[in-house]
## 1
Amino acid sequence: MIHEMHKPIRKADSKPLPVLRACSLEKSFGERLLFSSVDIDIFPKQQVALLGPSGAGKSTLLNCLEGVEPYDAGSVSIGGKALESLDENEMSALRRNEIGTIFQFFHLLPTLTAFENIELALQLTGVSAEQRQERVEFLLNRLQIEHRSEAFPSQMSGGEMQRVAIARAIAHEPKILFADEPTGNLDSKSGQMALELLSELCQEIGAGLLMVTHSQEAASYCESQYSLVDGQLQRDA
Amino acid sequence: MPSASSQSNLLATLSWRLIFRRWTQQKLKTIGLLSVVALGVSVFLAIGLTNRASVNSFRSFTELVAGKSQISVRSSLGSLKIEDAATARQSLLESEASLFPTLEVLVALAETDPSSPSPLYKVIGVDLLAAASHFSKIDGKRNQSPDTAAEEKSIFDHLSEENAFFATDSLAEERQWKPGQTVSFYMGQSLLELQFAGSIPNQTDEADDSIPGLVMDLFSLASIAQRQNEVDSIEIVLPANANDPGTVSETLALLNEANPGHWVVESQAARQQSGAIMTLALRTNLRALSALSLIVALFLVFQALDSSVSRRKSENAALRSIGVSPNSIRWLWIIESACIGAVGGALGILLGLVTARFSASMVDETINVLYYFTSDSKLSYEPSEIITAWFVSIFACVLAGWYPARSAALTPPAQMLKQGQHHTRYKRRSYLTAFLASLLFAGLAYICPPIPASNGHSIPVGGYLLALALTACAIFIACPLLEFLPKLFNGLSRTSSSLRVGLSRFRKPVARHRLALGSVIVAVGMTAAMIVLIGSFQKTVTEWMSNVIQADIYIRSRSAVSADSKNVITQEIWKSLLGRPEVAEGGTISRFNTRIQERETSLIGYDIDYLVSQPHISWIGASPDLSRMADAPNAIINESFKERFDVRIGSQIEVATPGGIQHLAIIGVQSDFGNERGSIGVDQDLLAKWMGHNRMQGVALHLKEGVPLNEVVDNLRQEFPALEIYSNRLLRSQALQVFKQTFAITYALEFIGLFISVAGLGAMLFSSLLERRGEVGALRRIGMSRKSLSGAATAEGLGIAGLGTAFGILLGLAQGWVLIFIVNKQSFGWTLSVSIPWWQVTLLALAILATGALVSWRVGWWNSGLRIEQEE
């Protein structure tokens, strides 16, 4: 467990408040209503999958919840902070402290090694060099990629790249993790391993997870599943 | 097999849909790229037009009245006598040619501040009676403008008026002279009151080709200038029906047959060529500098196209996958390059036509000082020069696009579609090989002999090639070092995420990095080399001036500013100056333009007693015993003369004078940065004896101890308004001013070089960050602020600017050495002592780093402000 092996950077909240709360969220593209009346709460350690057909607006909803894309109506708060009230600098600070993101195409920096890619997320939060070294080494071991520490992304397999991306996303122990099709670019074995790790690590650091996927198999790793159909967010049984 | 026409149709369709539509969709980027090409082409064209104008300005001013004479006869030394006109007339008795003896005198307008130089005009004295009866245009004006009584008078009416003068339309309009108005001029040491009689319409066919100048009756001018019985040239005009090359050659032959020995008989074309040859070295150097700015611009085009190929890999792959042949893809890119060249070139031509107006006046200043009097050169927008610039632009852009086109055509579709494989292959060994090859080329260029030009100077081809080879060496050695930057600054990277991200780019530098580095190295190298050259020149000239300018007061005629002036200070004036109670000592200098071995040069008469008493010459090598020059045919020469005529101490040289051929022994070589034609100096009295008269052009006075200098200068100015009186300090500052004007054009080129290098850096970052939109978006999603992302872009830009500046300065020092010891020595024959103005070099480095950082920050800020979902 991370908390047993490494001193936590931030203490967990004792009161179970949602790490992500969206109320009456609405978004249109021109005349086309993409979604409306979206309400969702995600609590610490809760893992939520967001399903839906292609073009339903899953990624756009994820972007709105993450504060990357503006929404037309409603509100979103992360860690109790309403995104509408944040300026650009505060938004950046929120992203580097409270949010972790995992992409379909990994988006590792091609000119940084695996170690440095993970370390960058910690460097952004102002963690000292010694603490960064300790934390990154721990994560590399935890994700079983310690032997690829000095490898550049172009020298790694897809599975390895995604594990580095996961490590980067959780290195600073965010409150909420957003994952957009995290297995979309992986073979089934690597995908399965990535999801297992992601699930375990979210539990370990106490973060909530919102995963956009079109795969039922991937969604099965999450305790709650939602579908975006005809602009409405529905909780699946 | 598709037919050739269907291939052409396909290319036309694809060009329209892929190239021109993209241009309209990406307006800003397209405008930026076209602007860079336009800037390079404009400098190239402006210098070309200026060079041509400076050559044209050498043609005879007698065109004012005689139109284009086919042949002119001048003296190889001094002036012709009126009897020479009779001799020439006799030799052409069988011919239908008309002869126009002319006199040329410089006058200065007398309406300006006495402490500053006045506007100078050349007055042509011509037999108005003969000219008016021969050329209808000379009195045509009175018929066109019958409004005023003065203009209604015929030119014949003015023949009896000794002080009447005519001016060209353009000049009369510029000065707003009205017929009948009295205008004051200084001629020599006299103040003249001349009456403006009317304007002369342009005599040549080209409407915008008039030369500003004044015309007087030959005999009136000779009387005023006290040059009775003298003419400067005899212009020979053939009738229109006999104006063919054969008749011109026959006439030339007849005149040469009658040549009494001191005539220089030249066709108009040959005379113009003489002027061109005289300024060849200056113009060649300007052309080389302008070509450099074009090369830097092309560097950027190459860079832009290369990045475009990289960005549009998927587009190329899609085209390949639907069956478009690699050849067609290559052609598509070449068509795009040609279009960039054509459109950018056209814009550059418009800009160049405007820029040429400024560069022409800068070059005029230089030519005035170094060669001969020229009024404002009239720029003629030569179609051949404009068409050449346009084709050079297209050709150069196609050349710049060749490699990217080949790369686009040869990359397999699978590789094109592969994600994250945008890095070009980077082989350190190939850079080492290229470096060694460039070094070998530099060695060969160093031993390459200069090409001798017909004016006695040389074209330093080896020097130019050496400068080029050194540039290649600097680029090939610097590019692999980019990879070491992250290691060098590893410690710093650990302290800042911006530095870590920015510097990490150099772990796998792409072609764009190397090209931006190359363009910074070229521009900084070029600028630093000019700084070193100008600094060395300034130091050498300042030292030379402190040695040469030792007297308290210097005096010359207001209308004797140019090197070829014939206006002189009379013996009476000189004696009255020397006899003043406050003057302790003085000396004079006389000058005649002459021809030795068919090359223009100067013959100088020195006051030997003054030279011995006040030694003020900088000698190259041992100082000669100047007393050997007094009354003996011993001469001193300057360095340019030594180089041009390949002579040394102990050599004998023949000089034709009206007093016969003189055999002069060279006893000393002096430093002289006054002209590049060279000069040979002898005892003034001896020279006066050979020439039949003395022609004092300048006077130097030393005042007695304790005499207030400024007071004496003021008194002299009041007493002699037609003379220019300089105190020692004023002359030095004016000489330095002239020196700065000489290099005015290089300052403009320095600025352009700097602009292009910083623009190149910005363009590199712009396209590089655009290409890495996904990466930038990911960085923002993991919490990098706009400030940090801009910082990363700044670190990347500064890495290139820093390395480029370091190598650029090293290159500049090496190129400065080449310019001083090879190019300058072979072009002008001057020995310069090296001086590196470190503060200017440091300022250059700081300017590049600061502007590089600023541009990088701005591009980074813009890029990080794009909406993240757009980036994704």
## 2
Amino acid sequence: MNNCYRIVSFSIVIALMLAMLPLPDWAQAFRPDWVAMVLIYWVMALPQQVGVTFAWVSGLLLDVTLGSILGQHAIGLVLVSFLVLLQYKRIRVFSLFQQSIVVFILLIFKQIIVLWVSGIVGQEAETWSYFLPSLIGAMIWPWVFTLLRNIRRQNTRTSQM
Amino acid sequence: MQPLFMRGPSVTLRVIILVGLSVALMIADHRWNHLESMREAIESYLIYPLRYVVNLPVAFVHWSSDSFLSHQELFDENQSLKDQQLRAQVSLQKLSILEKENERLRRMLSAQPKVGERVLIAELLSIDMDPYKQQVVLNKGEQHEVYLGQPVIDAWGVMGQVVHMGGFSSTAMLITDPSHAIPVQVNRNGLRSTVFGNGQPDRLELRYIPHNADIEIGDLIITSGLGGRFPPNYPVGRIIEIERPAGETFANVIAQPVAHIDRSREVLLVWHNPPQNEQNEKAETGEKTVEAIVGE
């Protein structure tokens, strides 16, 4: 149980570091939302342990990391993980391709919430490339999924998760 | 074993509570800036270690390129630095005389003499923030007496100001951020305006400049110090575009920042003590007198 939280937190920390990793200017628009993707995986795999509260805390950390308004990404991640919690049984049995589509919709949903908040505050981005991260995220989802599943299975073998 | 039923409040209730909490946080953060201390705590104890680790490879590359320089390269660099130093020294001589003269004139006008500002060199951490905001992370924080709203400049001009703080790092908003504004004046004739960022790293907007204002392409824009936040007389930008659309009240004036906004690695944090109200008034009248004299 404890071990499970350790793995989940560790992967979120890695995702946060990927979110602040310096990229060349042209590549910044392509950076997928690592935290959201990792969170979607864990909520889907361990809905009893990882839920909306965990998503909210990760969102706050992401807000501080990105320098956005406190709560902006938190609200997005809470709602995304809520959607996953409602449908996790269905998403689990999807093929990887179908899962990618679901992840794409979830990531777009989160970006729209974030964009909506930015719009209210008056800092909206005006280009369609704003939604590129969701597309990239959906495209690399199969690899993220496989990687995280392997990590989870290895840990299940050594201890009860 | 997975429990059959979830304990605690239901998921829906928790979501409603958390969404409400997020909205409350956003309002408190945006409207009243109440959460600076909370952000500071998270930044110092949780996020800064991550930033430090992410920055390590870049810092290592810089360190190694510094420490494995050949003798010849070091020699050349030293030589050119000495040359620069000499040239700077010469112009500094003139500057110190001018400074003395300025101080004397100001005293004659019973205006507040300007004092030198305290500065601290900070380095940018190689950290990416929200790509749709113009922000940078500096490696100096509250431990180094950095304060909120502190001006950040580089060797060429004004870069921005500190907006968030951690114990060992701080976040600065650049002057090119859409939500940043800075009071300025044209160096040539003292025409006052306000410079707004518009999200592009090489463009600034001067607003509220009437059509008939005396402003030309190539004019240097400097801080006017009117807001009390930035010290006066630091260069901000150079006018590159003026458009006077018929039927609109104000001209569209675009400037290019003189600071190397997206290239500088080292920046300066300036401690600027805005003068007290009384002195401020005196300084104002003093400046007016100067203007009057110049006008005649």
